[in-house]
Amino acid sequence: xxDSPAPKTRSFDRRLIEGPxxxxxxxxxxxxxxxxxxxxxxxxxxxIMVGHYVGYVGNAAIGVSWQIFLVVVVFxxxxxxxxxxxxxxxxGKGDHMKVNRTVYQAFLTAAVLAVGxxxxxxxxxxxxxxxxxxxxxxxxxxxxxxxxIMFVFSFGILMFFMTGGAFRSAGDARTPLRLGILMSxxxxxxxxxxxxxxxxxxxxxxxxxxxxxxxxxGVISVIVLWLLLSERAVVxxxxxxxxxxDLVIIKxxxxxxxPTGLQGVAMNLAGVFLLRFIGSLPExxxxxxxxxxxxxxxxxxxTWTSVGLMGATAAVAGQNLGAGRPERAIQGTRVASRIGLGxxxxxxxxxLTIPHALLGIFGMxxxxxxxxxxxxxxxxxxxxxxxxxxxxxxxxxxxxGDTKSPLYISIISQIVVPLGMCxxxxxxxxxxxxxIWLAILLGHLTRCALSVGRFKQGKWQGIQVDIAPxxx
Length: 472
Description:
- By secondary structure, the chain is an all-alpha fold.
- It is 79% helix and 0% strand.
- It has one domain.
């Protein structure tokens, strides 16, 4: 069998490679940004409810657990980045069959990793991982069941990430948005019921937050499989070919995805060790709670939109490079970075002007937590300007196939700079929370400068992407 367009699959949106580049970027960016905000609100709801019904120890438990969970999940989902590179290139060329073959092989790979590796390993290693980050004993008690549930039932979350990445890379950002709205709505309802209890259903507290997340993601995964099998979306599973694993495609998924997975591990390990430094402070529980709310949740209003822009930029850059139009990839990246800067400025002003009100939403009333959280938000108001530009250019590099450069940049900016600074200060004297917050800012500044510089070198324009035709 030779590759040919799948007749039942929706046509690709060619406006990403034709017409005004600003409109193309915005058409893909706004649904992705909104989806990330709505998805991130799930975590906000978790923290708000846990903060009011459990206390700041519960907030610290969720923050610590998510940091650990992301280290592993980001690595497993690295195949989705490789999938995105291939899908964007083949979409730019108008090759439906290669797009669908790539998506199916990404699904098979993710399923094996989630069920065969992530679930068992995460369950048994969870206590050791919590000990690694210096979580206080009462925080560990709240975090252990939360973390185990997230690991064991991670397949639905991975399916949502995979499908969203496939649709966006093919130019459809609205279907992931609809799925995200549905998942967020279900999660909010389940959180209200499971965290605080309702009628005969007991209050599960922090554990209920994890239950709500995995149940809603599980429902979405069923819908996702139906979409991929029914050929009603812009991408789907291929018809008429082999359903077996294709090692050639899987190798390409890891060729482009593995550096991104290692990058994600490096960044999140940096976060884990940063939590370890925070855990060494005299006011460790208060500082971890401030970090969980200020950085993990409030700062995420900047990173959610920036990650959305990163995905949009990757699709626009990859498709235009596949269509032989690298100049549009450059223009699209500049547009995306400007959009991100506008969002970062608005949110940064809120961090500076109403920090107590923002922290109070999460039930943060302890004076020490409020002081540390306010201090951190001040640093993050500046840091957001750098990280949003860095992520836009990271998306452009990854979307065109240069996934190694962001890995090296992340090691320097997220590990060497901030952790090195904290380690040096701790070795010569007393480490303070403000010094950790400054280290975060300097890391983001470094990442921005290196990402922009690498993209401007233009070496991404020569990266080749292809797979062999399917055989009967």
